[in-house]
Amino acid sequence: MDNKLLILWRYFPSGHIRTEEIAEALQISQKQTARYLKKWNDEGWLTFTPGRGRGNVSRLQWLKNIEENFEDEVLLMLDHEPVEISSKYLMYDWSTETKLRLMNKFHTQFGFVQEAKDKLVVPKRYPFRTLHPLDAADAHSANMVSNVFNRLVSLTDQGEIIPELAHSWDVSPTKLRLYLRKDVCFHDGSVLTATDVINCLEKLRFHEQNKDLWRPIDEIVSKAPLVVDILYPSGCSYILPLLSMMTSSIYKESKGRIYGTGGFLVEEDTDHKTTLAAFKEHFQERPLLDAVEFVKVPKDFPIVYHSSLERDHHETFQVESDSGFGVLIMNAYRKESQIANLEVRQYIHQILAENRHRIPEYESRAIPNNNSCMIGNRLPYSIPTAVRPEFTEPLIIRVAEHTEEASRWLLDTFTQYDIPVQVIHVSFEDAIFNKQLTDQTDMFIHGEIFELNQDLSFYFFLTNGFAPLPLILGKNRKWQKRISQYVHTPFEEWTNLNVEVEKELIDEGIMIPLYYQKRYIPFSTELMNVNIKHFGYVDFSKLWLRPTID
């Protein structure tokens, strides 16, 4: 099957045609087009008679219905081939009716498969960007990290510290001593040692995007087997919560591969399929599933978790999950721009507040937010009354692919108020990793998803190198001093500190809350123990399917 042949069938009926038009539609050169036409002619799909002489057009005559033939072939393949092989054909340029039929058929291949093993096949729209804990800057990748790797401790959303790889610990004002579990195995079969832990934490401590978080730490050493000491002479109130974060996952790198100790190990990882297999030697509770497969599907493919054995219509229930929030970040200390003027930022805040209710017209999952970004602390704040300033030059706005819908609302609002703008379109990777772009930009919409505990996540938002605020706030001495208060404030008091800092960011026009998002995931009623965990995603280690017993 060839998608180029399908495109030709769909958009060019039998009759007169120019090869230039075909080349443009197929996005190839005219020379390549001639080769393809000869190939398809020889295979019996069509006859193509080239025009002879100037002004004479060519003629195309179809001999077979391409879409019907291809559809039959894909349907047969879906019944006999692994889903990751047939999934790529959903990306073809089908007519709406054919694509709907194929997607309905394809959807029956997903869900729980109860054979000798329990396997959940999950549709995914994008490949995972990374499975390395230090590079997981997006929620999809970080959720995978949470399944494959363990931390030394875990932190609940209520702030309770729970043992993981460390079973106990002693805390003093200048030192944390961790006692590691015995006989914990990595996925390659090797046993966890204190040296493994130190190697991971040392890489993290000097990692470009995380070094500010770990600045209070002076030394990490081991003075006895399975004992790790973390020293912080100047104090570090949040050391235990810090060890619970995804970036603090413990791993082992060997022969170009990375191994964790988590409930699932990575059995396969390609652009089209990622397979997690249950790790039977896991030191905690073994996952109830044997495997989870993530298979790439088109963007419009419906995501439903259900049993592939259930061929007929099945009942589902919606699981609500927080999907983060969106804010406008303004580069308040960009001296060469008008955005450095507080009156300009206040005026922008004012007009956005007046039009915030229109965001759902652009981003359907967005719920306008005129309060705090932190759940449970959604305190209202005052909206400034500002006089329109004179805009002497365009404001530079960065638009990333993952915030494109909300950014259109922002741009349309500025157009409504005759505010001149210059737009820079960037990829997700550039928005995260290209710090120079942030320096050159006046403002942009940023989407954030908290990991689990929002007190720790908000501080991470203020300080980690993947987030935009550290680059902006780091230019201002007052803000540097303000954020340094976290180190010396007991973690139990961070909620109040976060509320105060957020209010200051809003009052100074640096961060303006715009919306928060909810995700509603449909699950079949036959799936048991659906729990939402890190970054608003389901905990795969707890899922199971109630068996059908006659």
UniProtKB/TrEMBL annotation:
Domain Transcriptional regulator SgrR N-terminal HTH span(s) in chain numbering: 17-81
- The Solute-binding protein family domain sits at 160-299
Organism superkingdom: Bacteria
Indicate the transmembrane segments per the record.
Answer: none
Q: Which Pfam families match?
A: SBP_bac_5, SgrR_N
Q: Is this entry keyworded DNA-binding?
A: yes
Question: Sorted alphabetically, which InterPro entries does this protein's record hold?
Answer: SBP_5, SBP_5_dom, SgrR_HTH_N
Enumerate the SUPFAM superfamilies for this protein.
Periplasmic binding protein-like II
Give UniProt keywords alphabetically: DNA-binding
Would the keyword DNA-binding turn up in this protein's UniProt record? yes
Protein name as annotated:
SgrR family transcriptional regulator
Per the UniProt record, the source organism is: Fictibacillus nanhaiensis
Classification lineage? Bacteria, Bacillati, Bacillota, Bacilli, Bacillales
